[in-house]
């Protein structure tokens, strides 16, 4: 049996499906099945080493020497990285580093500037 969501209007647990809609028999409220109420407020945010929230386009600095696998290159402490992009996964920052190129970094090894 499917676990259907409670009605967002009255909280009733007796909701049912009608094609692509959920329907509440108690208050007659209808909503799309793809709609997730308040989902954007509960999403986990990506934070830097100090707990500051990161956003696309931020400028960060590296707080630890990072060895690059398969190469003899190292990203040094204090390296400034502009215009980051946040992505899903273990390495949650996508960026370009001058002299090295495109890389993915873990947010635990960076500090937000500004």
Automatic annotation (TrEMBL):
Statement: the UniProt record of this protein carries the keyword Ion transport: no
Give GO terms: molecular function aspect only.
Answer: hydrolase activity
Q: Name one Pfam family in it.
A: Zn_Ribbon_YjdM
User: Carries keyword Hydrolase?
Assistant: yes
> What keywords would UniProt list here?
Hydrolase
Q: Where are the transmembrane segments?
A: none
Can you give the residue ranges of the Protein YjdM C-terminal domain?
A: 47-112
Q: Which residues form the Protein YjdM N-terminal domain?
A: 4-31
Report the sequence similarity comment from the record. Belongs to the YjdM family.
What protein name applies here? Phosphonoacetate hydrolase
């Amino acid at each position: 049996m499917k676990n259907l969501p409670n009605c967002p209007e009255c909280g009733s647990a007796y909701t049912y499906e009608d094609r692509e809609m959920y329907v509440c028999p108690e208050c007659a409220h209808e909503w799309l099945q793809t709609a997730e109420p308040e989902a954007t407020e509960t999403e986990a945010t990506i934070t830097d080493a100090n707990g500051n929230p990161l956003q696309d386009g931020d400028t960060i600095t590296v707080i630890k020497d990072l060895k690059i696998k398969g190469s003899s290159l190292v990203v040094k402490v204090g390296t400034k990285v502009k215009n980051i992009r946040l992505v899903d996964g273990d390495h949650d920052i996508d960026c370009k580093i001058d002299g090295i190129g495109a890389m993915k970094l873990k947010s635990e090894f960076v500090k937000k500037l500004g």
